[in-house]
Amino acid sequence: MKNSVFKSTLCSMCxxxxxxxxxxxxxxxxxxxxxxxxxxxxxRLETAFSTSNDQNVSNQTGNPFNNVSISRQAYTPPAxxxxxxxxxxxxxxxxxxxxxxxxxxxDGTSPGIRNVExxxxxxxxxxxxxxxxxxxxxxxxxxxxxxIRGVFTSPDLYETHFDASEFDSFQGGVxxxxxxxxxxxxxxxxxxxEGNDKPNPLEIAGDNYLIDFPALFLExxxxxxxxxxxxQQIAWGQTIFFRVFDVVNGLDLRxxxxxxxxxxxxxxxxxxxxxxxxxxxxxxxxxxxxxxQKFQPSVFGNPNTPYNVIASQFTVHDRYDEQGxxxxxxxGLRAKGDYxxxxxxxxxxxxxxxxxxxxxxxxxxxxxxxxNLGTVGNLVNLAYAGTLDRQFASSGEALANSPxxxxxxxxxxxxxxxxxxAESRLDGYNGLNAAIEEFEGPSELFASTVNTxxxxxxxxxxxxxxxxxxxxxxxxxxxxxxDVYGIGGSYVTxxxxxxxxDQMIINIEMSITPDRVFTNPSLSKKxxxxxxxxxxxxxxxxxxxxxxxxxxxxxxxxMYRNADDLVGRSLEGYGASAPVGTPSPGDIQIxxxxxxxxxxxxxxxxxxxxxxxxxxxxxxxxxxGGILLQPGIRWKPSGDVTVxxxxxxxxxxxxxxxxxxxxxxxxxxxxxxxRLGYQF
Amino acid sequence: MHIRKYDFNYGRRSLLKKAALGASAGVLAPLFPLIxxxxxxxxxxxxxxxxxxxxxxxxxxxxxVINANNVEYxxxxxxxxxxxxxxxxxxxxxxxxxxxDASKLFGHDMFEAxxxxxxxxxxxxxxxxxxxxxGEPWIGGMPFPDAxxxxxxxxxxxxxxxxxxxxxxxxxDWDIDPEGNVTYQYDxxxxxxxxxxxxxxxxxxxxxxxxxxxxxxVWFTAPNDVAGTSFLNTWHYDQRKFPNLVGYLPAFRRVxxxxxxxxxxxxxPGISFFLSxxxxxxxxxxxxxxxxxxxxxxxxxxxxxxxxxxxxxWEKPVHGGPKGQSFFRTRVQLIPEVLVxxxxxxxxxxxxxxxxxxxxxxxxxxxxxxxTYDRRGDAWRKGEPSFGQFVDGDKVFKDGSGNTAWSFTHxxxxxxxxxxxxxxxxxxxxxxGYKSRHYQGDEDVYNKYLTSAAMQRLGxx
Lengths: 680, 461
What we know:
The complex is a heterodimer of chains A (680) and B (461). Chain A has 680 residues and is mainly β. Chain A is 13% helix and 35% strand. Chain A has an 18-stranded antiparallel barrel. Chain B has 461 residues and is of the alpha+beta class. Chain B has a domain at 161-459: Lipoprotein localisation LolA/LolB/LppX (outer membrane lipoprotein receptor (LolB), chain A), CATH 2.50.20. In chain B, strand 20 and strand 21 (420-427) form a beta hairpin. The chains are: A mainly beta (680), B alpha+beta (461). The interface between A and B is large, with 80 and 64 residues. Chain A: This is DUF1302 domain-containing protein.
């Protein structure tokens, strides 16, 4: 703790002589007589040690296909079969499919071996964090609140640290997308979108550091009215972790993703946004809360960072700036009523969905298929050069008008393609057709839509071989407006004194978003539009199991979602599967979708006497076969020092298809997190 | 030569006898008429109950320091834990002369209202305090200035905790571990606003809030890890009901409703203070039961002379314990008669507390000491407040209406089973710029400190 009053604060600021001199001048002038300044902060080491051998498959070094021999076979594109038949006089039908006419193994690219080395890291996450809070009360109505947060990590901590430039000599290296994210070393913290390297104006970030302001706002209070202007976070609702009313801010997953101590909810994740918030205690019982906010999207982990969830064979083009959303506003209003044991709340929010929607995008990368004599790429190039009515000068230009880029670190086999489609809750089969149908480039290079998975595999492997190894996929992230309406009710029970049912707080919260836009699992531009319903029930209480320990805090929650999962992915992409290795097409399942997502959560906190030691436990269960378990302990041996440890175990394969539950995406993240904090 | 009118033990025998009878306070005369005239309360008692020197047969006198060397002489005038603190932990108490002007035992408005409304209070069939003639909620002042039962005495404590319509206490807390080290230190403002039982010109009730007794909030401003943690209790007038509790936890970034029936839990790490401890009447009084006056006796209590307004930030010197940090300097005076009230947590069958024993000064019906016992009957925790007018020599702190402020100056809690101590001092100012005050005036303190919106604002970090 620091300085409670202005004078003592001044002493702590002696190292800032210019500021100090300025403040003294103001004080002498009597301007700051009412001003009080207080500040405090902490420094904390946070380390998450991996306790399993599993690696994040979304990253290059965790790709299970690395150095795995995958048999590939190139085929004659159906569009070229008649030509070959007539020109060469081969005994093949004039009309065929992708699996009709295999090409001889002439280029040595089969079997395909993904030439990225798999690595294991003992540390999933390691940062040093510092935060400083300052509050300046100018008078009893106006104050300034500021919290600055700085985090720093070292790439040396991570065995899995990746450098794409090491592959510049393969297939011409990686060219597409933002250089800072895709062409070099893992970038742990920078948030970039196309056309704007500072989409969040109040943060400074580099590859290994991030400085931002979770709070930086002026506050004005008069009677029942309160106004806040500046960078801030707004959270609504009674449910914890389950976001029903908590729709105002997106999430920033760059640090510890959603794997912080569950009991802290999203304290470190909500994206602060420049906002004007007005709160009005309309009556003793009714509180109105409204805001206007600069739209700030959710921030996902960058490629090849520990908790990245977007397969790193994709290059993402974030269109936030190009859509002109830098200056776009979100609005919302919530009313909350409390009447003793009963309560209600209602909200209406007009916002851009901060998660965004993904679809195939033109790669824009002009890089020809390799033209070494006798290769599949050479054959395609020759065939395309001989096409009289071609639209593009070269295969490179055609690919620039497709969602694909000839590049290392991409997908190298059909099997890998379908495996990652399933992992990403996407539909690889229809995704291939969408990429061919919706862009001019692929069909120029003789790609064509397919009717069977067998043909999809044949076509994909043909093009991977034509590319001389692998191809990266390009997708874009766009944002859509939506209106979210919510209602909720609460009731505090009265039961037998001392029983668990006495003073239990029960809340039901529901929201509906008409015509919410979702990513089509095929990544088609024909996005899924569906009314999205989210409902949650939460019951919580304190209960004394023994007179020797303080009461245990218990909370139980249930969530139902009809259209998307806990992190906003359309449920239509659920249910696909593909094995690692060289499967037969029958082993590849396209997603069948699921009707709903349901989650159960239970959390408990048990303080010891004096609350110097506190145990915590949380479990999140996806009824389709995933579970997250997180026991933890917080020890506060003195006022300055806090030690926290929590173990996270995720099992996304409790039965059935792991791609039918949400948690399998983070299955790799079994880890022990330790935090050592010192506050001042 | 001083001629004694009564034998030496007359006063004590009389008090002992009265305890079982439900009689009025006072031995030689009823006490309350003297109080009402702002007279010297000592006139209601024989001299051995008003003079420490006489009571101890000259072993201890006003001006002395009670320490391990002389505590045996006053052992009967304190609870067993205080005795242990002095005998074994190096605690000392400074003896001052008893107050002779009864009005100085109160704040101005509280005193006026108590006199004005004396005799008007009653208990309804449920045990709630009402205006006997109308059945309306209480109209201010002590409802039972001459309490004759444990419930009446507890009602005096419960209906107006701080005995001002509004108080904002800028509290600094030090928490001492068994080795005597200050291991935790917290700053928190504590705001109270009575909705009913109000005194002074503001009327007995806040408009439209007759169903509530008080609004009370607390929010931590330091250190960093708890800063922003805030809670708002809305107390129903019906003392059978638990307060409504909403809170702002920084991790959640929003105000949420919390269960309120667990009242024996530490609010923050290291602190030896429970919600139930406030004024030894931290729970709605009808959620406890079996109130009983078990004894009337003289007692040493800190009921004045303890405001150190001349010291930096009003923070008191400390002493005692292994590191000289365990206890505030405290000045006590001989109280001729306290009620010793026992109560049991009948509404909390799983509570760790089995019994609470409260020592109440009959002159102003204020708690001067209390001890809780665990379910086995062993002494567990002690709370020892100090009250008084805010006068330190020529330095006086006014309450905003021009009257001398009256409030608590400090309070100490001691968990003797874990040997942990928490010391609260009402200070001039704490982190965040919050200053102690005891007057509402024209300020909209309700919206500023005591609503859900206020919790959101005050809790923000």
